[in-house]
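tokens incoming
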């Protein structure tokens, strides 16, 4: 199991580059750069490609709706070239509030868009003369004067790894079928098989064996600390959970809230959302169950952290995306590695 970390998506871009270099010096295997309604991820990744040398670099995530599939492929090939083959393309549908509110694009056909985008990217990287007969992205446009073209540059790799962010049943099955990796959110290692096992099995049953095993990147907050420090250090995990479960989507269209309910926290999911959307954000954070925080995050004494790591490994996680909290990040990383 490898270790990655995700840069915060607010704040100063130059400071973010310094954080990325710090992550490399600490020995992280992978650095993920998010893109929400923020600075774009691509500019920052270009700077990171030039200022780092060993750490993997990935998007977590580029929204499918904000760029054409061909531009996504061109961007990925460029970042892979700048980083000498260290890039991973993280893709996802995001959600309707961001896509329709920020980008002004209809949030339609997320599954079909995902499949077609992946197909087109791989054709571009193989430098095929680009044609595509999908209903969402026909190339060239029918009845037009567009020409079938191929990428002028020769990519560093003819196949850049694609990791798909997915939460719903059909999305997870699709990720297991067509992607090199899966980026779940709020991954509970003990309940993952109950929630996603059937979906993963369905997708893996259609997976090309030549793709190899599915990579799974799960995220958590981590700190090795004394028992009496646990509540204080997991405050940020509470707040982040409340933000997503309560505020990342309208009632009835919040995918994180739906997932929380599938984990067995239906009543808590409703209450967190009600509190958060009514402006009572601190109360929403307090409503996040301690049991959930214990299962998902690695905050506690070394023996507890080791136990939770074993649970993640047993659940098939291949990369742990760690947000370090607490005053001794180096010690936490040493415990995680050992």
């Amino acid at each position: 199991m490898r270790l990655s970390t995700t840069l915060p998506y607010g704040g100063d871009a130059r400071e973010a580059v310094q954080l990325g270099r710090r992550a490399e010096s600490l020995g992280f295997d992978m650095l993920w750069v998010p893109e929400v309604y923020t600075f774009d991820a691509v500019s920052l990744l270009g700077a990171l490609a030039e200022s780092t040398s060993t750490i993997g670099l990935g998007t977590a995530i580029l929204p499918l709706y904000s760029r054409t599939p061909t531009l996504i492929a061109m961007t990925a090939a460029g970042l892979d070239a700048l980083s000498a083959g260290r890039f991973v393309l993280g893709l996802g549908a995001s959600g309707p509030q961001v896509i329709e509110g920020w980008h002004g694009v209809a949030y339609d056909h997320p599954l079909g868009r995902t499949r077609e985008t992946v197909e087109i990217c791989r054709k571009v990287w193989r430098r095929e003369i680009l044609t595509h007969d999908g209903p969402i992205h026909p190339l060239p446009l029918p009845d037009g004067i567009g020409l079938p073209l191929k990428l002028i540059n020769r990519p560093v790799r003819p196949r850049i790894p694609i990791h798909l962010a997915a939460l719903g049943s059909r999305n997870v099955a699709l990720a297991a079928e067509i992607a090199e990796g899966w980026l779940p959110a709020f991954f509970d290692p003990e309940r993952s098989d109950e929630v996603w096992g059937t979906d993963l099995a369905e997708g893996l049953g259609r997976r090309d064996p030549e793709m190899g095993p599915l990579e799974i990147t799960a995220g958590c907050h981590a700190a090795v600390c004394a028992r009496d420090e646990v509540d204080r250090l997991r405050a940020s995990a509470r707040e982040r959970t409340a933000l997503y479960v309560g505020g990342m989507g309208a009632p009835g269209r919040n995918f994180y809230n739906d997932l929380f309910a599938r984990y067995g926290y239906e009543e808590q999911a409703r209450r967190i959302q009600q509190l958060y959307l009514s402006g009572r954000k601190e109360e929403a954070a307090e409503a996040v169950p301690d049991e959930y925080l214990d299962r998902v995050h690695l905050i506690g004494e070394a023996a507890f952290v080791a136990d939770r790591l074993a649970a993640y490994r047993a659940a098939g996680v291949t990369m742990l995306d760690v947000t370090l909290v607490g005053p001794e990040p180096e010690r936490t990383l040493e415990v995680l590695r050992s």
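note: The chain is about 45% helix and 15% strand.
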